[in-house]
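During the reporting period the student researcher (J.K.) took over the structure-prediction task from the postdoctoral fellow and processed the backlog of single-chain submissions. One of the processed entries is reproduced below for the supervisory committee.
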Amino acid sequence: MYIVYMMYSNKKFGTALKEIIEQKKIKLRSLANKTNLNYSYFSKLKKRESSPPVSTIELISEGLGISPEYFMEYRIHKIEKELKDYPHIIDKTFDFVNKLSNKEKLKVAERKKPFTKH
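J.K. obtained the following structure tokens:
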């Protein structure tokens, strides 16, 4: 069981991992023991550009006591899975974004007279 960590990271996995380990003041050897992953693997993870498999992110998150959604790559994986399972969502999302970005449909309220100081 893990504690829901209310903050999310938008940084690459290695950077986010390094920051959360420092923030929670967790020793890599302790995390290695909790996850049954090799101690040196964490050093490599913090430095490499690519993220580990989703199952490894889940394992590390559990060892850290946080939700896997903390990591951007996990959130992207969940979104990708949902879109594959429910492709109709893509069209609805695209239409919604299109409407928001269409400048002709967005109107900004303007004052005809300037504000005056009293």
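The committee noted the following: The chain has a mean pLDDT of 83.
J.K. will present the remaining backlog at the next meeting.
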